Amino acid sequence: MSKIRIWLQERIKRWVKPATSVLIIGLLSDLTRSHTDLVVENALLRQQLIVLNRQIKRPQLTNSDRFRLVFLSRFTVFWKQALHSVQPDTLLRWHRELFQFYWRKKSQGKPKITAEMVVLIKKMAKENQLWGAERIGVNC
Q1: How far apart are CA 70 and CA 72, in angstroms?
Q2: Cβ-contact 98, 70 below 8 angstroms
Q3: Over the stretch 20-74, which tens digit does the pLDDT of each residue have?
Q4: Which of 108, 102, 101, 66 is nearest to 87 (CA)?
Q5: Is the confidence at residue 9, as pLDDT, over 80?
């Protein structure tokens, strides 16, 4: 019984232990990267661990988790290598959604131009053809 248990433990150790060649290649690639890239990759990995430790089953990311991952990924070109709990395509989709949300909110704040204001702008543009849009205030 103990021989089987020892054999099984050794087998599991070999499955779990990363290959030496992978470690050496990873070390060499890390030596060529900047300090900023390594720090950002570390932060991305930590954020994923925070999410994974929070749940027992499938990880549920909150909007703030998504924002942090998108935000951190913008600081390194090696962001795809640091993602393990999320697909790169998913992160890119979140980035597009955040971008759309930002511009949607930003565009809602502009006041609507009334019909009288449009008439006044056209009248000013017609009477003062050398003024341009900046002087008339069309771009305001």
Answers
A1: 6
A2: yes
A3: 666 677 777 778 888 888 888 888 888 888 888 877 777 788 888 888 888 888 8
A4: 66
A5: no
